[in-house]
Amino acid sequence: MSIEIIVACGKSADGQLIIGANGKLPWNVPGELKHFRQKTIGHTVIMGRKTYESLPIKPLPQRNNIIFTRQVHYDAPGCEITNQRMPILRAFRHSVEKCFIIGGAETYRSFYPWASVIHFSMIDGTHEGDTYFPFSQESLRQWTMIMTEAHDGWKEIIYGRVSTSQ
Q1: Cβ count near 103 (within 10 Å)
Q2: Average pLDDT by consecutive 10-residue portion of the chain (166 residues)?
Q3: Which of 55, 104, 117, 154 could form a cystine bridge with 4, CB 3.0-4.6 A?
Q4: Where are the alpha helices (DSSP H) in 25-148?
């Protein structure tokens, strides 16, 4: 599979994984944004409408931008618009091409069962927000940590899905 989730999270005071506040990132960590760009450039990125609308540059340059939304008549120049998950899954599940799910919460939830890798950027400190990653760290039992690396202001953690033979 080459559907991968990429997400920047901060922890709230009660330990929830925050991904947004008022339609924006609740932190400014330039090194993490550069990392996101380097990981996703040249690949397909899939995002929800609200995530697309929150981007400072639209569409994300040098990437194939797909907006996953219930609004079938939504218009976003330079982007593909869809409300259908199956064509995306057929195109990318067994492809050598990577496809990154970049948010928001509903889009993460929609593609989580088919993702093979999760790229977490855990932002240092405690944060406040109103949008949360839809899965707790406890739900990562079906995943194995592949690597972790500390950076200035954040930590990269990559998980791979544990294969189960039936």
Answers
A1: 25
A2: 91 94 95 97 97 96 97 94 94 88 96 95 97 84 92 96 64
A3: 117
A4: 30-40, 49-54, 85-92, 105-111
